[in-house]
Amino acid sequence: MNTTNNSTPNDTETRIIEAAKALFIEKGYAETSMSDIAARAGINRPALHYYFRTKDKMFHAVIGGILAPIVPHVYELLMQKELPISMRMEGIIDAYYHLFSQNPRLPMFIVREINRDTRMLLGTLHELQLDRKARVVIASLEAEMDSGRLNRIPIKFLFMSFYGLLVTPLLMQDAIKEVFLDDGNSFEQLLLQWKPYILKQILTLLQPTT
Asked: Which entry of 10, 67, 157, 165 is 20 to 30 Å from 201 by CA?
């Protein structure tokens, strides 16, 4: 294998994944070539194919690197039934905010890939076994609804409400910066100000009325 430096195999693989991630988010999967990734990683095509024979395998590695850390964290938070739902939801919002602070264009990338090939993205989640935890979480939430601890709401509407509130500002961040950030606040500060409103609206859906 011929690389352009003396990196260890793990270093080289990490550099490839980071290069692919940056390009996928910047240009999209379809518009990114293996040559683009090799050039961004500073290696040649044979070296790239040594680690990843196909762009699909690289896509799996990128999605796994992004979502594998947060999905178990969200899972653990939601499964802590001894905690009030308000604390669990706030922890989840904080976890996503941390992820988006590191990858501010990630929501746009995910939406683009869902529109391009939903089956491929869902298949990647399945291969990474991330969908299994999602099914357990759904069953757990439905059990809490059945017990009366949470208000009964279709999971699909809870999903749409939560992620709509969470990611819409990031999808529209350029317009928001242009229109609303004339008071000296940063976009990051605006997101922090928006957080209580996300929480309030989700709790309105989930907390039983007395």
From this structure: 67
